[in-house]
Design brief:
about 325 residues, alpha/beta, five-stranded parallel β-sheet, about 45% helix, about 10% strand
Length: about 325
């Protein structure tokens, strides 16, 4: 394991780190299984994961199920989704229990049934000790601003845990119009646009006014939002400094307020100093957290970025672990 001289900080926590459960794997179509085949061992082998963390100098990973997780299940099979999510979260809690100083976890939720998702989040946090939940974007075309998810969002707020909003493919109609026949645009461009749009929908729907303490995490240094920060704040904010949601009621705060008070961003998959500088400038270092996106990205590459990123020693400690320790009560 790297020595203290090799590491630029006293502790490293990474938040968007994937695992794979066999029950979910069996749901994946052949095309998705082929895409993940070369990573399946790293997604599934906890002991190997710990060894690679040691090699890179990562102290703790917060695990979440690999995209698209149980959200691949149709709405009509919500009971199956609920059963599988319970199994996945039980397995995750057992893995964390086996390595309590090295692993933590975000729950998988059966968002096909918003009420069941709220109940499973409560169980996962209060009984299993998980640190929140990761949701892969929309569920069969339904976004978290849908009023049906109010109980889930309220539960997250009451428990004081974040929801990590992970990318997913846009709804099929959008993919067909925007990205065909150039399907490579979906993960490279469609995913950040889709995730950023999902978060903006929450703002425009007044979600953060109803739940002012709700915390959403997004990856990839903010899913384009820091770069568009000034334009979004001007364009979505009226002269009175308030968004106008779909019901005609004015929101209490500006887009900038929600981005700086309800949103955290991680570095998952993006280790680029100019992009990082933009995120720091627009969101603030207190809203940024280190992540790798293991095993889709390399631990060593991420740690090399951490070593050399242009931050003061105190700010580097915040980025590497301090913000995550506080938010997740690690």
């Amino acid at each position: 394991m790297p020595t203290q001289l090799d590491n630029p900080v006293t502790r490293v926590v990474s938040l968007e780190e994937a695992f794979l459960h066999p029950r979910v794997w069996n749901l994946y179509p052949d095309s998705l299984q082929r895409r993940y085949a070369h990573l399946k061992e790293r997604l599934s082998d906890v002991a190997q994961r710990i060894r690679l963390m040691d090699d890179a100098g990562i102290d703790l990973q917060v695990l979440s199920h690999a995209h698209p997780g149980a959200q691949i299940i149709p709405d009509r099979d919500a009971d199956l989704a609920t059963t599988i999510c319970r199994d996945v979260n039980d397995w995750l809690a057992a893995s964390v229990s086996a390595y309590p100083t090295r692993l933590a976890g975000f729950a998988t939720l059966p968002t096909q049934s918003p009420d069941a998702a709220a109940a499973e989040l409560h169980r996962a946090v209060s009984q299993l000790g998980l640190k929140g939940a990761l949701i892969n974007g929309h569920t069969n075309g339904r976004y978290l601003d849908d009023p049906a998810f109010d109980k889930l969002l309220g539960t997250a707020t009451e428990l004081g845990v974040p929801i990590y909003l992970h990318p997913t493919d846009p709804p099929e109609a959008i993919s067909q119009i925007y990205y065909q026949p150039f399907s490579a645009l979906i993960p490279s461009w469609g995913w950040p646009v889709e995730t950023a749009t999902h978060l903006l929908r929450l703002m425009c729907a007044g979600v953060f006014d109803r739940y002012p303490n709700l915390t959403i995490i997004v990856g990839h240094l903010g899913e384009l939002l820091p770069y568009c920060y000034t334009r979004l704040n001007a364009g979505l904010t009226t002269a009175m400094g308030a968004l106008v949601p779909r019901d005609g009621m004015r929101n209490r705060n500006s887009a900038a307020h929600y981005l700086k008070n309800n949103v955290f961003a991680t570095s998952s998959g993006l280790f680029d100093q100019p992009v990082f500088d933009c995120a720091v400038a627009m969101l603030g270092i207190d809203r940024l957290m280190f992540s790798v996106d293991y095993p889709f990205q390399d631990n060593e590459t991420a740690m090399e970025f951490l070593r050399h990123c242009a931050l003061s020693p105190d700010d580097k400690e915040r980025f590497a672990h301090g913000n995550a320790d506080q938010l997740l009560r690690l």
